[in-house]
Write a structure and sequence with these properties.
about 50% helix, 5-stranded antiparallel sheet, about 450 residues, Chitinase A, domain 3
Length: about 450
């Protein structure tokens, strides 16, 4: 087989392969032998069916089609290997007519990864934002930890209930049909509720406010379309509520005894606990700083790199992003994309424009990082892939072997995970090569002082 590049424009390469008559005849003969081995024809043993019988049974046209199905993939593989092509789409085929005793021509159009011109990465200056935890941040974290161990306790107060209160109630809920008939859903259920909580229905809050312990209240409302509660969606609910008492939230104070309890004896004193919280904040701050350096380095690298973005990759990325957005809208609101556009008042043309720009950023980032990895021979290893699978399994509380088998059964999923590892290694490599300029965190109070000055 002889090949030649017919044309090359941007990232589109057209390659022609030519087979002489002798090669065609050998390929057809090989197909006939294979058919003879696997075909059941009465009166003949497999592998001993005469050629004439095979020709009568399948027809020469069918034999040539079978031959093409073997020749074309092999030819494409050789072209890809010979010209070292990295494809981003399925190749387009233009085969000629395959006939015994005649030469055969196959023309293939390949869409390949576009050429990327990288800058001198050692000359890139990336910014690393230095995040520094403060004692105030430490104390805020400790306050949240203490609040997480709060208890709701009765107050035995006899007064009107306000929106800031917690209350203990007993309720019975029912579904009410159009005729006013009630069908019980839950009976005599006890619970404590905070009237100021964001997820509280305003109808329920209004029915309880101003009441006193011992009072009762009845409230009705229609349940909106809710993907999480499809059985009740669109129906009218009735709640009959008995107020058992006013409650209060008691948050423990920071003492040595509290530290021992909430850390399960890992720490014994408040000083140890404060030191541990600050240590965790410093570790998180350093990770945050390192992430800012990675973001800055990749952004600078992409801005300084030159590459012509293929329309096919941009469109493919837009489709993926659009599908992801539609899935999240469906999950959060139960609406399809078109309905969401209509009800939210979002400009569809503006959305598509923003989507196009976002897709271009993602595509360019992927192409530039891949080019950087290729230029520096950065690869993933089976050991790294298995370690990543094990890490995900442990964090998700899944059997590592089951997750390993599940991922290895899907080639696309396996490739996606491997590419993520390679990208991560590439970004890590980049941050070791660029010039790093450190900058202090731009805190809101510092910004406000600057503006005042």
């Amino acid at each position: 087989m002889k090949t030649e590049v017919v044309s090359q424009e941007k990232n589109i390469i057209v390659v022609k392969a030519e087979f002489d008559a002798e090669q065609v005849n050998k390929a057809i003969e090989m197909t006939i032998k294979d058919l003879s081995k696997k075909t059941n024809i009465k009166g003949f043993r497999k592998g001993h069916v005469p050629r004439k019988t095979i020709e009568l049974y399948f027809g020469m046209k069918g034999i040539c089609i079978e031959t093409l199905e073997k020749m074309v993939p092999e030819a494409i593989d050789k072209m890809i290997e010979e010209y070292e092509l990295s494809l981003i789409a399925e190749p387009k085929l233009e085969p000629g007519d395959l006939k015994e005793g005649e030469p055969f021509t196959l023309q293939v159009t390949f869409e390949v990864t576009p050429e990327v011109t990288l800058p001198e990465i050692e000359a890139i200056e990336a910014e690393k934002t230095v995040y520094t935890p403060t004692e105030e941040m430490r104390d805020e974290n400790i306050t949240r930890l203490l609040e997480a161990h709060s208890e709701i306790v009765p107050t035995y107060e006899e007064r009107d209930i306000t929106k800031e209160d917690f209350v203990s109630v007993k309720y019975t809920s029912s579904v009410v049909d159009q005729e006013g008939n009630a069908s019980p859903v839950e009976s005599d259920q006890k619970t404590e509720i905070g009237l100021s909580q964001e997820n509280m229905r305003p109808e329920v809050v209004d029915s309880i406010m101003g009441k006193k312990p011992g009072d009762t209240a009845t409230v009705e409302f229609s349940v909106e379309d809710d993907p999480q509660n499809k059985e009740l969606a669109g129906k009218k609910m009735r709640y009959e509520i008995e107020i058992l008492g006013i409650m209060k939230k008691v948050t423990p104070e920071l003492t040595d005894e509290t530290v021992v309890e909430i850390t399960k004896s890992k720490h014994k004193t408040t000083d140890e606990f404060k030191e541990e919280v600050m240590s965790q904040l410093k570790a998180a701050a350093e990770q945050h700083s390192q992430d800012s350096l990675k973001d800055s380095a990749v952004e600078k690298l992409c801005n300084l790199s030159e590459v012509e973005l293929p329309d096919t990759l941009i469109e493919r990325q837009k489709q993926a992003m659009r599908a992801d957005q539609a899935q999240r809208i469906k999950k959060d609101s139960g609406m399809e994309m078109e309905e969401f556009f209509e009800k939210s008042g979002m400009d569809k043309e503006e959305y598509e424009k923003e989507l196009d720009e976002a897709a271009k950023v993602v595509v360019k980032r992927a192409l530039v990082l891949e080019a950087l990895a290729d230029a520096n021979d950065i690869q993933w290893t089976p050991e790294e892939l298995n370690a990543e699978i094990h890490r995900i399994a442990i964090s998700s509380r899944i059997d590592p072997k089951k997750l390993h088998d599940y991922i290895y059964e899907d080639r696309d999923r396996l490739f996606e995970m491997a590419e993520k590892i390679r990208n991560r290694k590439t970004v890590d490599f980049l941050t070791t090569k660029v010039k790093v300029k450190e900058a202090a965190e731009n805190k809101p109070e510092a910004k406000e002082d600057t503006e005042n000055k």
